[in-house]
Amino acid sequence: MLARAQELERAGRSVVHLEIGEPDFPTPDHVVAAAVEGLAAGLTHYGATAGTPELREAVAAYFRRTRDLDIEAANCLVGTGAKPFIFFTVLATCGPGDEVIVPDPGFPAYESAVRFAGATPVPIRLDGDEGFRVDPELLRSLLTPRTRLVVLNAPHNPTGGSLDAATVEALAEVLETTDAWVFSDEVYCQLQYDEPFRSIGTGGRLAERLIILDSMSKTYAMTGWRCGFAALPTPLVEPLVRFFVNSTSCVPPFIQHAAVAALEGPQDCVETMREEFIRRRSLIVDGLNAISGVRCGVPAGAFYAFPNVSSLPVSADELADRLLEEGGVATLAGSAFGSGGKDYLRISYANSQDNLREALARIAGFVATL
Questions:
Q1: Beta carbons within 8 Å of 39's beta carbon, 6+ residues apart
Q2: Which range marks the domain in which residue 195 is found?
Q3: Strand arrangement of the beta sheet that strand 181-185 belongs to
Q4: Among 3, 152, 238, 362, whose Cα sits 20 to 30 Å from the Cα of 202?
Q5: 179 domain-assigned
Q6: How confident is the model over 332-344, as pLDDT tens digits?
C-alpha cells in the first residue's frame, strides 16, 4: 500500500498516510547526540553479537523497572530490531509437527515465522466486541500436547487492543498448565493509555519459559535505527546468539550507545508522545464513529484504530483500495493481518491532527458516495 501511495504522490496526487506503523515524532535530541558521540568515538566496528555490556545492563535495569523482573544482563539480548527475535525464537523452539498459537488478527511476521519453521500456526481469534483481548478460556481450548509456543502481543498490532490486569492473571493461570514456551511481544508497552501496562511476566511469572520482546522503535521513535531487545530464559540465550552470529552479526555499536542514552536518560519525550497519541486517538475514533456504516472501538494502546466496516456495501479490501485510488487516503485492509481482520481497516493515527482531520473528511466524503 505504501509503495502504491508513493507512486500516486509522484504522479501529483495528494495522499494522507494512515498506513504507516511508526511514530511520526523525531528521535529525541539526547539520543541523536549520543549516536553522534559514539561515531566520533569510533564505535563503528563490529561489536559483541549479544549486545554491548553497557546496553545489556541498561536493558536488564529497564525490565526490572517496568516489569518487576528479577533478571540479569546475561539473560538480555540485543538485535537488529524486533523481527529477528520473532523468527529466531520460533526457529530455536519449533519444527515440523509442532503447533504455535498466534493472534488473529495479528502481526503477519508471527505466522510467517511459524510456517518457515515447518510448524503449524493455530490462530486464536480476537473479538472486537471484547476489545480484541485474548480470551483465556479460548486459549485453554486451543492448547494440545503439540503446542510448542504461544504468542501474545499487547498492546496489539493491528487492533490497538491490550490486556487488563485480570486478563493477564487469567492467562498466566492457563499458561501454567502447559509446558509450551511463551513469546510476549511488548514493543508498544510504553504506549498504553487508560490503565498501567501489565506484562504476562510481571513479578517473574513463567520466567523459565517466557521470552519478552521490546524495542527502541516505538517508544523512542527509532524505527530506522533497528535496535530491539529481549529478556530470555537461559536455555534460549546461546541458540539465539548463534542465529545472530550467522545472520546479522551485531547492532552497530554507536546505535547501542544511543540506546543506552534512551533507556537511561530523561523519559519526558516518551510521555509527550504518549499524551499526543491520546489526543489523536480521541480525534480519530470520534471521527470514524461519526461516519455512517463505520464502527470503531477505543484502542487501549499502540497508535492504531481498527474500525469495523462490514456495514458498508463494499468489502474492507475493496474499501482500502478505493480509499487510496479515489479518496486519497492510504489505509490497510484488516485481512492483511489474518482472516479475523477481514471486516476491518487498520488506521494508524501516527500523523498530525491536521492530517487526521483531512483524512477523516476524505473518508467520510468517499463513503457517502457508496
A1: 254
A2: 29-264
A3: 76-79, 228-231, 210-215, 181-185, 147-153, 99-104, 120-125
A4: 238
A5: yes
A6: 999 999 999 999 9
- Strands 76-79 and 228-231 turn out to be antiparallel
Query: For residue 345, what are the β-bridge partners?
Result: 333
Contact 192, 162 (CB under 8 A): yes
**C-alpha–C-alpha distance, residues 78 and 266, integer Å:** 21
Q: What is the mean pLDDT of the chain?
A: 97
181 and 211 Cβ atoms separated by less than 8 Å: yes
Is the CB of residue 21 less than 8 Å from the CB of residue 109? Answer: no
Residues 156 and 275 both lie in one domain: no
Do 168 and 128 fall within a single domain? yes
**Overall pTM > 0.85:** yes
- Claim to verify: residue 68 and residue 195 sit in the same structural domain: yes
What's the CATH code of the domain at 79? 3.40.640.10
Split into its structural domains, the chain has a count of 2
Residue type, 22: E
Q: Which helix H or strand E contains 6, and what residues bound it?
A: helix 2-10
CB 17 within 8 A of CB 327: no
pLDDT at 2: 82
Residue 24 lies in a domain: no
| Cα 192 from Cα 69, distance rounded (Å) | 19
Asked if residue 54 lies in contact with residue 251, where contact means CB atoms within 8 angstroms, the answer is no
* 238 & 184 share domain: yes
